[in-house]
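Problem 12. The chain below contains 203 residues. Write out its predicted structure in C-alpha cell notation.
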Amino acid sequence: LVDGVDRGTTDPKGVVTLALPREKIYTILVRAEGYEEYNEKQIVGNNQAFITVALKKSPYSVFVSVYDEEKIPVENASILINGVVKGTTNTFGRLQVTDLTIGNYSLEIRNPGYTTLRQPVRVTAQGEEISVEMIYQHVNVTVRTLEEGAVPVPGTKIFLNGDEKGITDEGGALPVSLRLERSYVISAEKAGYTVDKIEKDVT
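Solution.
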C-alpha cells in the first residue's frame, strides 16, 4: 500500500512496478504472510529507479507434544531443533518453542528408553501444534528355567509383570522382548514345582 492505497502484489522475484511522481515522500505499507509488517516513509528522488524494502520474518511460537506407543504423554523428552536443544517436555508431554520463523526445520527428540526420533517439520502458522509418537527401545533376552543341577525345565509358563508370555521349549528356554528403562517381575509356573519369581531392571 502506498499512502493507504493498494498498489498491487509483488511477483515471484519480489518486485512490483509502480508509477510514482518523483521528489515526493510516500508512506509505504507492506504485508506478507510470515513476515513483520513494514510501515515507513520513503522519499522517491528524480534519479531513483528502485525502492528497497527489507522485511523481517515474524517470530512464531509452536507447541511440540510427545506421546508413547500407548498415547501416554512422555515427560522430560529433550527437544532439538536443527541440532539445538530447546528444552524438555513437561508432565503433559508438551514444550512451547518460541523463537522460530516460518520455514523448514529438523526436529529431533530424545528420551532414555525410547528410540531417538528424527523428522522434518514445516512451521506455517502461529501456535501450531506438532504431535509425535516415540517408539520404545527393546532388548531381546531369553528366559531359562532350570532345576537343581542346571537341568532344563521345559513346559514352564513364563509371566512378565503378571502377563503370560509363553511356555519354555525342550531346553527350558523362552525368548522374550523387554523394554529398556523398565522393571519387570518375571515368574515361572509349572505343575509340581514351586512358583518362582525374580525382579529385573532392564537398562
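Discussion. Residues 17 and 49 are 10 Å apart (CA to CA). Students who got a different answer should revisit the alignment rule from Section 12.3.
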